[in-house]
Write a structure and sequence with these properties.
It is built from 17 helices and 13 strands. It is an alpha/beta fold. A seven-stranded parallel β-sheet has the order 3-2-1-4-5-6-7, sandwiched between helices. A six-stranded parallel β-sheet has the order 10-9-8-11-12-13, sandwiched between helices. α1 crosses α17. The longest helix is centred in the middle third of the chain and has 24 residues.
Protein backbone atom coordinates (compact mmCIF):
# COMPACT_ATOMS: atom_id res chain seq x y z
CA UNK A 1 0.00 0.00 0.00
CA UNK A 2 1.18 3.54 -0.74
CA UNK A 3 0.94 5.79 2.32
CA UNK A 4 1.48 9.51 2.60
CA UNK A 5 2.44 10.49 6.16
CA UNK A 6 1.95 14.15 7.13
CA UNK A 7 3.65 15.40 10.31
CA UNK A 8 4.10 18.85 11.83
CA UNK A 9 7.78 18.41 12.67
CA UNK A 10 10.54 16.43 10.99
CA UNK A 11 10.64 13.17 13.01
CA UNK A 12 14.34 13.22 13.81
CA UNK A 13 16.28 13.67 16.08
CA UNK A 14 14.07 12.01 18.68
CA UNK A 15 14.06 14.89 21.14
CA UNK A 16 10.28 15.42 21.43
CA UNK A 17 7.42 13.04 22.08
CA UNK A 18 5.59 13.65 18.80
CA UNK A 19 8.79 13.12 16.81
CA UNK A 20 9.58 9.87 18.63
CA UNK A 21 6.05 8.55 18.07
CA UNK A 22 6.04 9.50 14.38
CA UNK A 23 9.50 8.05 13.75
CA UNK A 24 8.70 4.65 15.20
CA UNK A 25 5.30 4.55 13.50
CA UNK A 26 6.99 5.26 10.17
CA UNK A 27 9.65 2.63 10.84
CA UNK A 28 6.99 0.00 11.54
CA UNK A 29 4.81 0.93 8.56
CA UNK A 30 7.77 1.13 6.17
CA UNK A 31 8.38 -2.60 6.63
CA UNK A 32 5.11 -3.35 4.82
CA UNK A 33 4.17 -0.20 2.90
CA UNK A 34 5.67 2.40 0.58
CA UNK A 35 5.95 5.61 2.60
CA UNK A 36 6.02 9.16 1.33
CA UNK A 37 6.83 11.49 4.22
CA UNK A 38 5.73 15.11 4.14
CA UNK A 39 7.08 17.05 7.10
CA UNK A 40 6.29 20.65 7.98
CA UNK A 41 9.20 22.46 9.58
CA UNK A 42 10.08 25.84 11.04
CA UNK A 43 13.81 25.11 10.97
CA UNK A 44 16.28 23.56 8.52
CA UNK A 45 16.51 19.77 8.67
CA UNK A 46 19.98 18.40 9.31
CA UNK A 47 21.64 16.21 6.70
CA UNK A 48 22.03 13.28 9.12
CA UNK A 49 18.37 13.42 10.17
CA UNK A 50 17.27 13.57 6.55
CA UNK A 51 19.44 10.52 5.74
CA UNK A 52 17.79 8.49 8.52
CA UNK A 53 14.31 9.05 7.04
CA UNK A 54 15.54 8.60 3.46
CA UNK A 55 16.47 5.04 4.42
CA UNK A 56 12.93 4.33 5.61
CA UNK A 57 10.82 6.22 3.07
CA UNK A 58 10.42 6.06 -0.70
CA UNK A 59 10.23 9.85 -0.76
CA UNK A 60 10.80 12.62 1.79
CA UNK A 61 9.41 16.13 1.33
CA UNK A 62 10.12 18.97 3.77
CA UNK A 63 8.03 22.14 3.67
CA UNK A 64 9.95 24.79 5.59
CA UNK A 65 8.03 27.85 6.73
CA UNK A 66 9.37 31.37 6.54
CA UNK A 67 8.90 33.79 9.43
CA UNK A 68 6.38 35.73 7.32
CA UNK A 69 4.32 32.59 6.61
CA UNK A 70 4.32 31.69 10.28
CA UNK A 71 3.14 35.17 11.27
CA UNK A 72 0.42 35.09 8.58
CA UNK A 73 -0.80 31.71 9.85
CA UNK A 74 -1.04 32.99 13.42
CA UNK A 75 -2.97 36.09 12.30
CA UNK A 76 -5.33 33.92 10.27
CA UNK A 77 -5.97 31.70 13.29
CA UNK A 78 -6.58 34.67 15.59
CA UNK A 79 -9.12 36.18 13.17
CA UNK A 80 -10.98 32.97 12.31
CA UNK A 81 -11.12 31.29 15.72
CA UNK A 82 -8.69 28.51 14.87
CA UNK A 83 -6.31 27.46 17.65
CA UNK A 84 -2.93 29.15 17.46
CA UNK A 85 -1.44 25.65 17.59
CA UNK A 86 -3.04 25.13 14.18
CA UNK A 87 -2.27 28.59 12.80
CA UNK A 88 1.43 28.28 13.58
CA UNK A 89 1.61 25.38 11.12
CA UNK A 90 -0.75 26.79 8.49
CA UNK A 91 0.34 28.12 5.11
CA UNK A 92 -1.39 28.51 1.75
CA UNK A 93 1.87 27.55 0.02
CA UNK A 94 2.11 24.40 2.12
CA UNK A 95 -1.50 23.52 1.24
CA UNK A 96 -0.71 23.85 -2.48
CA UNK A 97 2.42 21.71 -2.11
CA UNK A 98 0.55 19.00 -0.19
CA UNK A 99 -2.27 18.97 -2.73
CA UNK A 100 0.28 18.65 -5.54
CA UNK A 101 2.05 15.85 -3.67
CA UNK A 102 -1.22 13.92 -3.43
CA UNK A 103 -1.58 14.18 -7.21
CA UNK A 104 2.02 13.12 -7.81
CA UNK A 105 2.14 10.18 -5.41
CA UNK A 106 -1.51 9.07 -5.58
CA UNK A 107 -1.41 7.38 -2.17
CA UNK A 108 -3.93 4.75 -1.12
CA UNK A 109 -4.15 6.30 2.36
CA UNK A 110 -3.03 9.47 4.11
CA UNK A 111 -1.95 9.40 7.75
CA UNK A 112 -1.84 12.73 9.63
CA UNK A 113 -0.36 13.33 13.07
CA UNK A 114 -1.59 16.01 15.52
CA UNK A 115 -4.24 18.72 15.22
CA UNK A 116 -1.53 20.91 13.66
CA UNK A 117 -1.87 19.04 10.34
CA UNK A 118 -5.64 18.58 10.27
CA UNK A 119 -6.53 21.64 8.14
CA UNK A 120 -4.46 20.27 5.28
CA UNK A 121 -6.34 16.97 5.27
CA UNK A 122 -9.96 18.11 5.60
CA UNK A 123 -10.53 18.43 1.87
CA UNK A 124 -8.52 15.41 0.76
CA UNK A 125 -10.37 12.89 -1.39
CA UNK A 126 -8.02 10.13 -0.30
CA UNK A 127 -9.03 8.14 2.82
CA UNK A 128 -7.40 9.78 5.84
CA UNK A 129 -6.44 8.25 9.19
CA UNK A 130 -5.78 10.85 11.89
CA UNK A 131 -3.70 10.61 15.07
CA UNK A 132 -4.60 13.10 17.80
CA UNK A 133 -1.71 11.70 19.83
CA UNK A 134 -2.60 13.81 22.91
CA UNK A 135 -5.61 15.84 23.99
CA UNK A 136 -3.92 19.22 23.43
CA UNK A 137 -6.78 21.15 25.00
CA UNK A 138 -6.37 19.25 28.27
CA UNK A 139 -2.68 20.11 28.35
CA UNK A 140 -3.40 23.81 27.87
CA UNK A 141 -6.07 23.71 30.57
CA UNK A 142 -3.53 22.30 33.01
CA UNK A 143 -0.96 24.96 32.15
CA UNK A 144 -3.51 27.76 32.38
CA UNK A 145 -4.48 26.67 35.90
CA UNK A 146 -0.91 27.27 37.06
CA UNK A 147 -0.47 30.71 35.51
CA UNK A 148 -2.12 33.86 36.88
CA UNK A 149 -3.14 36.98 35.02
CA UNK A 150 -3.11 37.64 31.29
CA UNK A 151 -0.92 34.69 30.32
CA UNK A 152 -3.23 32.26 32.10
CA UNK A 153 -6.19 33.89 30.37
CA UNK A 154 -4.58 33.50 26.96
CA UNK A 155 -3.88 29.84 27.62
CA UNK A 156 -7.49 29.29 28.71
CA UNK A 157 -8.66 30.90 25.47
CA UNK A 158 -6.37 28.62 23.47
CA UNK A 159 -7.58 25.60 25.47
CA UNK A 160 -11.21 26.45 24.64
CA UNK A 161 -10.40 26.83 20.94
CA UNK A 162 -8.50 23.56 20.95
CA UNK A 163 -11.34 21.74 22.71
CA UNK A 164 -13.85 22.86 20.06
CA UNK A 165 -11.43 22.03 17.27
CA UNK A 166 -10.55 18.58 18.61
CA UNK A 167 -14.21 17.66 18.97
CA UNK A 168 -14.98 18.82 15.43
CA UNK A 169 -12.19 16.73 13.91
CA UNK A 170 -14.02 13.51 14.66
CA UNK A 171 -16.65 14.61 12.12
CA UNK A 172 -13.95 14.88 9.45
CA UNK A 173 -11.83 11.89 10.47
CA UNK A 174 -13.91 9.01 11.83
CA UNK A 175 -10.80 6.80 11.64
CA UNK A 176 -8.82 8.41 14.44
CA UNK A 177 -6.29 7.32 17.04
CA UNK A 178 -5.10 8.67 20.37
CA UNK A 179 -2.32 7.64 22.75
CA UNK A 180 -4.32 6.75 25.89
CA UNK A 181 -7.82 6.29 27.27
CA UNK A 182 -7.12 9.15 29.64
CA UNK A 183 -6.54 11.50 26.69
CA UNK A 184 -9.54 10.13 24.79
CA UNK A 185 -11.76 10.97 27.75
CA UNK A 186 -10.80 14.64 27.27
CA UNK A 187 -12.02 14.84 23.67
CA UNK A 188 -15.37 16.63 23.94
CA UNK A 189 -17.36 14.65 21.41
CA UNK A 190 -20.18 12.21 22.26
CA UNK A 191 -18.70 9.69 19.83
CA UNK A 192 -15.20 9.81 21.28
CA UNK A 193 -15.27 6.12 22.23
CA UNK A 194 -14.86 5.41 18.51
CA UNK A 195 -11.34 6.86 18.67
CA UNK A 196 -8.93 3.93 18.75
CA UNK A 197 -6.32 3.95 21.51
CA UNK A 198 -2.92 3.36 19.90
CA UNK A 199 -0.19 3.60 22.48
CA UNK A 200 3.52 4.09 22.12
CA UNK A 201 6.19 1.46 22.32
CA UNK A 202 9.73 1.49 23.61
CA UNK A 203 12.93 0.38 21.90
CA UNK A 204 13.56 -2.74 23.96
CA UNK A 205 17.01 -3.30 22.47
CA UNK A 206 18.36 0.18 23.17
CA UNK A 207 16.64 0.37 26.54
CA UNK A 208 17.49 -2.87 28.26
CA UNK A 209 19.10 -3.62 31.65
CA UNK A 210 22.86 -3.51 31.73
CA UNK A 211 25.47 -3.36 34.50
CA UNK A 212 26.81 0.11 35.25
CA UNK A 213 28.19 2.06 38.17
CA UNK A 214 25.40 3.90 39.97
CA UNK A 215 26.74 7.44 39.77
CA UNK A 216 23.42 9.09 40.65
CA UNK A 217 20.74 8.18 43.14
CA UNK A 218 17.84 9.94 41.39
CA UNK A 219 17.23 10.57 37.71
CA UNK A 220 14.82 12.65 35.66
CA UNK A 221 15.00 12.98 31.86
CA UNK A 222 13.02 14.73 29.14
CA UNK A 223 12.97 17.64 26.78
CA UNK A 224 13.86 20.30 29.29
CA UNK A 225 12.24 23.15 27.38
CA UNK A 226 8.81 21.50 27.72
CA UNK A 227 6.94 23.33 30.54
CA UNK A 228 5.64 20.19 32.34
CA UNK A 229 9.19 18.81 32.42
CA UNK A 230 10.56 22.11 33.72
CA UNK A 231 8.01 22.08 36.55
CA UNK A 232 8.78 18.44 37.34
CA UNK A 233 12.52 19.09 37.51
CA UNK A 234 11.96 22.03 39.85
CA UNK A 235 9.67 19.95 42.06
CA UNK A 236 12.25 17.18 42.22
CA UNK A 237 15.13 19.44 43.24
CA UNK A 238 13.33 21.98 45.43
CA UNK A 239 10.65 19.91 47.15
CA UNK A 240 11.50 16.20 46.96
CA UNK A 241 15.29 16.23 47.22
CA UNK A 242 15.40 18.20 50.53
CA UNK A 243 13.05 15.64 52.11
CA UNK A 244 15.20 12.74 50.91
CA UNK A 245 18.33 14.45 52.19
CA UNK A 246 16.89 14.67 55.68
CA UNK A 247 17.63 10.94 55.82
CA UNK A 248 20.63 10.42 53.50
CA UNK A 249 22.94 12.10 51.02
CA UNK A 250 21.61 12.04 47.47
CA UNK A 251 22.89 12.86 43.98
CA UNK A 252 20.50 13.89 41.21
CA UNK A 253 20.88 13.85 37.42
CA UNK A 254 18.59 15.87 35.16
CA UNK A 255 19.25 14.95 31.53
CA UNK A 256 17.64 16.03 28.27
CA UNK A 257 17.69 18.48 25.41
CA UNK A 258 17.32 22.26 25.57
CA UNK A 259 17.33 22.97 29.33
CA UNK A 260 15.81 26.38 30.02
CA UNK A 261 17.45 28.92 32.28
CA UNK A 262 15.15 27.78 35.10
CA UNK A 263 16.42 24.22 34.71
CA UNK A 264 20.08 25.21 34.44
CA UNK A 265 19.71 27.12 37.71
CA UNK A 266 18.96 23.83 39.48
CA UNK A 267 22.53 22.59 38.93
CA UNK A 268 24.95 22.46 41.88
CA UNK A 269 25.07 20.90 45.35
CA UNK A 270 24.89 17.33 44.06
CA UNK A 271 22.53 18.15 41.17
CA UNK A 272 23.82 17.75 37.59
CA UNK A 273 22.05 19.18 34.54
CA UNK A 274 23.45 17.75 31.31
CA UNK A 275 21.53 19.15 28.35
CA UNK A 276 21.44 16.91 25.25
CA UNK A 277 22.90 13.43 25.80
CA UNK A 278 23.90 11.22 22.85
CA UNK A 279 23.15 8.00 24.75
CA UNK A 280 20.34 8.65 27.20
CA UNK A 281 20.22 4.93 28.06
CA UNK A 282 23.53 5.37 29.89
CA UNK A 283 21.83 7.86 32.22
CA UNK A 284 19.19 5.30 33.13
CA UNK A 285 21.79 2.59 33.65
CA UNK A 286 23.73 4.81 36.06
CA UNK A 287 20.79 5.74 38.31
CA UNK A 288 19.22 3.97 41.29
CA UNK A 289 15.67 5.38 41.08
CA UNK A 290 13.80 7.22 38.33
CA UNK A 291 11.58 9.97 39.74
CA UNK A 292 9.02 11.71 37.50
CA UNK A 293 6.93 14.14 39.60
CA UNK A 294 4.68 15.19 36.70
CA UNK A 295 2.24 17.77 38.03
CA UNK A 296 0.69 18.04 34.58
CA UNK A 297 1.06 16.60 31.13
CA UNK A 298 -0.85 14.61 28.53
CA UNK A 299 -0.22 11.38 26.68
CA UNK A 300 2.22 8.69 27.76
CA UNK A 301 5.49 9.58 29.43
CA UNK A 302 8.15 8.03 27.18
CA UNK A 303 10.68 8.69 29.92
CA UNK A 304 8.79 6.26 32.17
CA UNK A 305 8.62 3.63 29.42
CA UNK A 306 12.37 3.87 28.91
CA UNK A 307 13.11 3.63 32.62
CA UNK A 308 10.79 0.62 32.96
CA UNK A 309 12.43 -1.09 29.98
CA UNK A 310 15.83 -0.68 31.66
CA UNK A 311 14.50 -2.16 34.93
CA UNK A 312 15.04 1.11 36.81
CA UNK A 313 12.49 1.38 39.66
CA UNK A 314 10.10 4.28 39.06
CA UNK A 315 8.20 6.70 41.27
CA UNK A 316 5.75 9.10 39.64
CA UNK A 317 2.35 10.77 40.02
CA UNK A 318 -1.07 9.06 39.77
CA UNK A 319 -2.02 10.58 36.39
CA UNK A 320 1.28 9.60 34.76
CA UNK A 321 0.89 6.01 35.97
CA UNK A 322 -2.77 5.91 34.97
CA UNK A 323 -1.86 6.70 31.36
CA UNK A 324 0.46 3.67 31.33
CA UNK A 325 -2.18 1.36 32.73
CA UNK A 326 0.30 0.22 35.39
CA UNK A 327 -0.27 -0.69 39.03
CA UNK A 328 1.75 -0.54 42.25
CA UNK A 329 3.32 -3.82 41.16
CA UNK A 330 5.22 -2.02 38.38
CA UNK A 331 5.32 1.70 39.22
CA UNK A 332 5.07 3.46 42.57
CA UNK A 333 3.23 6.75 42.99
CA UNK A 334 3.01 9.67 45.38
CA UNK A 335 0.28 12.29 45.50
CA UNK A 336 2.59 15.07 46.64
CA UNK A 337 6.26 15.82 47.24
CA UNK A 338 6.20 14.24 50.71
CA UNK A 339 4.75 10.93 49.49
CA UNK A 340 7.09 10.81 46.48
CA UNK A 341 10.07 11.43 48.77
CA UNK A 342 8.94 8.69 51.20
CA UNK A 343 8.52 6.11 48.43
CA UNK A 344 11.82 7.10 46.87
CA UNK A 345 13.58 6.72 50.21
CA UNK A 346 12.12 3.25 50.65
CA UNK A 347 13.68 2.17 47.35
CA UNK A 348 17.04 3.78 48.13
CA UNK A 349 17.21 2.05 51.51
CA UNK A 350 16.14 -1.38 50.22
CA UNK A 351 18.08 -2.33 47.05
CA UNK A 352 16.47 -5.77 46.87
CA UNK A 353 12.99 -4.31 46.89
CA UNK A 354 14.08 -1.72 44.30
CA UNK A 355 15.50 -4.45 42.06
CA UNK A 356 12.27 -6.47 42.32
CA UNK A 357 10.18 -3.43 41.34
CA UNK A 358 12.53 -2.74 38.45
CA UNK A 359 12.28 -6.34 37.21
CA UNK A 360 8.48 -6.24 37.29
CA UNK A 361 8.59 -2.91 35.46
CA UNK A 362 10.77 -4.39 32.73
CA UNK A 363 8.40 -7.35 32.32
CA UNK A 364 5.45 -4.95 32.09
CA UNK A 365 7.18 -2.87 29.38
CA UNK A 366 8.09 -5.97 27.36
CA UNK A 367 4.53 -7.31 27.54
CA UNK A 368 2.68 -4.06 26.85
CA UNK A 369 4.85 -1.62 24.94
CA UNK A 370 6.32 -3.08 21.77
CA UNK A 371 6.45 -0.80 18.73
CA UNK A 372 5.45 -3.74 16.55
CA UNK A 373 2.16 -3.98 18.45
CA UNK A 374 1.62 -0.23 18.14
CA UNK A 375 2.26 -0.45 14.39
CA UNK A 376 -0.24 -3.29 14.00
CA UNK A 377 -2.85 -1.29 15.94
CA UNK A 378 -2.26 1.66 13.64
CA UNK A 379 -2.70 -0.46 10.53
CA UNK A 380 -5.97 -1.80 11.94
CA UNK A 381 -7.23 1.77 11.94
CA UNK A 382 -7.59 1.76 8.16
CA UNK A 383 -7.90 -1.98 7.51
Amino acid sequence: MKLLVLVSRFPHPLDKGDKLRAFHQIAELAARHEITLCALSHAPVGRESRAVLDRLCARVEVIQFSALETAAGLVRAALTGLPLQVGYFLSARAQRRIDALIQEVRPDRVFCQLVRTAEYAKRMRVPVAFDYMDAFSWGFEQRAALLPGMLGGLLRLEAARLARYEAGLLEHFPKSAIISEQDRDHIGHPGRDAIRVVGNGVDLETFRPRPAAKEHDLLFVGNMAYPPNVLAAEKLVREILPRVRQDRSCRVLIAGASPTRRVRRLAGDGVTVTGWVDDISACYAGARVFVAPMAMGTGLQNKLLQALAMAVPCVTTPSARRALGASDEEVWIGRDASEIADRTLTLLKDPERAAALGARGRAFAVARFRWSDAGAALEALWA
